[in-house]
Specification:
With about 180 residues, this protein is mainly α. It contains 6 helices and 2 strands. The longest helix is centred in the last third of the chain and has 30 residues, at about 145-175.
Length: about 180
């Protein structure tokens, strides 16, 4: 008699049939969960645990990265009122400059916490000018003509802060988006 092989399913997707196994831990994984490495396919958990080994940041990288990001982001936020719509183009460039300069200074050492510290520096660097926009905005609530112009300027400041911080984080962490 011929026996039919037992059906096996992905650990993360119980409705997907698979015969692929992680070459480190042996878990069943589907093609979406599999990460191709030079030594074969691995599950995402094994990849994450292996990446923790590669945290190489030194203690002084944290303040260096934070203050570099803070200073560049603050300098960029000072010219935001003159740019208006063009903030949409400048903010990612400032974020890229922060990421590349910090990578150069910290000599490409890495750590998830380091990436968050650098992004926090970029975020906090833009906050003072944003707050300086909010105070007059609240004082001009009764004057609609002045209020609208200041509101638009405040929106551009907010867009700058968000775009610089997110661009910085994604550039320094090297995140890759999968489809």
């Amino acid at each position: 008699m011929t026996e039919t092989p037992e059906k096996t399913y992905c650990v993360n997707h119980p409705n997907r049939e698979t015969s692929l196994r992680c070459n480190k831990c042996g878990k069943l994984i589907c093609s979406q969960c599999a990460v191709h490495t030079p030594t074969g396919y691995r599950c995402q958990e094994c990849i994450k645990s292996q990446q923790k080994i590669f945290d190489s940041a030194k203690w002084y990288d944290y303040p260096l990265g934070f203050f570099i990001a803070l200073g560049i982001s603050f300098a960029g936020s000072l010219i935001v009122p003159r740019l208006g719509f063009f903030v949409l183009f400048l903010a990612p460039l400032v974020g890229m400059a922060i990421a590349e300069l910090t990578r150069l200074v910290i000599q490409k050492r890495r750590s998830k916490q380091l990436f968050l510290v650098i992004a926090a520096g970029a975020l906090l660097g833009g906050v003072p000018s944003l707050l300086m926009q909010l105070v007059p905005l609240l004082l001009l609530l009764s004057q609609p003509q002045s209020f609208v112009g200041l509101l638009i300027s405040t929106v551009w400041h907010g867009a700058y802060v968000i775009m610089v911080a997110s661009t910085t984080y994604y550039r320094v962490s090297g995140l890759i988006f999968k489809r």
